[in-house]
Amino acid sequence: MTQAKDLRSAPTLPVAPLPAVLGALHDPVRLEMVRRLSNAAAPVRCAALYDAINKSTATHHFKILREAGLIERLTIDGQTYQFLRAEDIERAVPGLLPAIVDAANRAHATD
């Protein structure tokens, strides 16, 4: 059995200032990615984080979330995963992530 090996694909950036964080979360696709990551509370394979967009568009959205300091890319057993930096976000902007994810979950439940 192969042992999982976690590797960061790039240096972790600091969580961006609030306007940049809100800008990254403003897009519905990125908000949905963050909602899914938050609900999973663990690294998630990239393809499980989006629907109805192609891989290159998803890559663009992941880049924006990474640059805002919201997610981190990991390689586990050769597969690419995304990880929500919830603790870092909470330290940088206390209460923001739970409020946004809660609102996104409520909106998703009514879809």
UniProtKB/TrEMBL annotation:
Residues 10-108 form the HTH arsR-type domain. Pfam families: HTH_20. This is ArsR/SmtB family transcription factor. The lineage of its organism: Bacteria, Bacillati, Actinomycetota, Actinomycetes, Mycobacteriales.
